[in-house]
Amino acid sequence: MNYQSVKINGITVDVYSLNTVIVGTGCAGFNAADSLYSLGQKDIAIVTEGIKMGTSRNTGSDKQTFYKLTLAGGEKDSVLEMAQTLFNGGCMHGDIALIEAALSTRNFFKLVELGVPFPHNEYGEYVGYKTDHDPRQRASSAGPLTSKYMTECLERRVVERGIKIFDGYLVIGILTIRDNQGEYKDYDGKAIGLIAINLNKLYNNKSFDINNLTLDSLGITLFNCKNIIYATGGPAGIYSTSVYPESQIGSTGIAFEAGVKGVNLTEWQYGIASIKFRWNLSGTYQQVLPRYVSTDVNGNNEKEFLNEYFPNPGKMLDAIFLKGYQWPFDPRKVANYGSSLIDILVYYETQIKGRRVFLDYTKNPEYGSKNNQLDFSLLGQEAYQYLKNSGALFGTPIERLAKMNKPAIDLYKSHGIDLEKEYLEIAVCAQHNNGGLVGNIWWESNIKHFFPVGEVNGTFGVYRPGGSALNSTQTGSLRAAQYIATNPDYKGQPLDIEEFIEIAKTQVLKKTKIAETVIQNSFKTERNLERNSEHSLEVENDRLKIKSNIWDIRKRMQERMSNCGAHIRSYEEIVKAIQETVEELKNMTDVSRISCLRELPEVFRNIDIAITQYVYLYAIKEYIEKGGKSRGSYLIHDDKGILPQETLPELFRFSLNENDELQKIVNEIKMEGNEGNFDITKKEDIKIISEWKPVRPIPRNEYWFENIWREFRTRFL
Known about the structure:
The protein is of the alpha+beta class and 717 residues long. Helices cover 36% and strands 19% of the residues.
């Protein structure tokens, strides 16, 4: 890796030149770096806005799952059968499914060797269990913090190997060369580097004096690299009701801005989660049968509301129990008082009635209890047998939880929430994006040398087995590393520094113009306040007197997306939201006001959120116009559909997607401006290119070992 300091239009810029930059420090990012190093490519570095941030390190559930091939007992399984399970979820390419299945055991045992405590029996069998959409017992877990353990073990390996980590660098642009002459066959362009803000330098700047401020203060940093492995996680910041950690915003927008395609952007998972401390409430959190309570906004007027919609307590209790197994909202599980009716009722209370909803583990549900003693005979066979086998046919929900899964209680205590004494506030939250950026069988996008891995890659389609996402973080990052390390065009040095700067200059100036405009406009507003108040310009505690509006802008955008683009959708609201998002995006730079330099990165994050929302909303519109109805983890309003309950508003009238053909095609979508890559500074119209493509089948070739061995020696050794 080489370092130089250069001037671009008078701005001092740090430039680092190296073979590969990995963006992100979650399971996918650390594994990409470790895999590249093991394969011999050591001219690498990791760039992250915060090494302790992100989903991998900060999320989980009652029993966070890693999905892999069966590794215990006599149950039949095979790579092809696991691939078929993944493929059967719909809108997933068969070759990707096969790779995810084939590498699952390699990924799993690497993590075991690194120290992730996946349990095995006395004979060394890694016994599994069934997860959602899983016909086998392929799931394993190291407990609520599985992905945290994975991240920490992989980080330890990276640190031991001395791989450079640029901590505190916010990537705000992907530098590319457009393919205007057909130079890059099968690609729309080529990635050559990244532009970032050195937050360490920015945050250390104590001045907001317009007479002394220069763009040097921003710490603009360029990475001149041959390859980019993009492990930034899902676009968590586009929603207000979210179980993603607050530190997770995502950087999908700048990829769209650079011309990277999205795929299956309609497909997410949404489910019930706590919101004070963001955590999935699946598994035993539901199976112990807590009370569902709603209050007014001040915490008064308490009532148990589920009983208003169920014909008898047995139906309600079974639905609560099954919500543990069937955690993601699924419109197929609404009818006949199914578990996903609960998600609709929670949404109705919170988003429409404006009330607050809580889980209470201190008492049994009144509907089905006498003198606070639950009548377990009301339960269906599945729920009754599960609690009986667990020795939990007694007591209150918290007592049952302590018996079945005490770490689930301890987890909340470690975050200042005592389930033995207080209610747990909840909402239906965005949890995982099954779609994302396009990648081929080596996880390379339509932009050459750009590899989205982990959740930012649109690996999965409509339905996926729980835990398959954690396997995918390891699969995609390994595949990208293999391709980079073994292909001559991806090895070696990046562009000469002079050529790189010449190509990157225009794109860099676009970003600095955004910063300059926001800073200047903020000072203009401050000076207007000064003239109107007849007071001199004052800066207190490094802040202007003007009130920042960047958080209000973000809140407005996120609430709009949660209201219309989450698990409850309608065509009319989507079209309206697209129009509002376009206007917001075009005017973002002009209307944003900051009170100190530390807030400037939030402007770039807001721009990323707006771009991402626009493309995702457009994809939803495309799907509905294609005839798509409710499926996966979302409900689409349909005037000709059915209401889950006649007492519910028309918003919830829906039809299931019975058009199986829509699960055999995927939507790829790309954003462009009038001159190629979208330029927010020009307020130009946004051009969307949308294509529907058939899913690729699962490869079913008959391989001959000697031929594969010969090819392997030639390509990978």
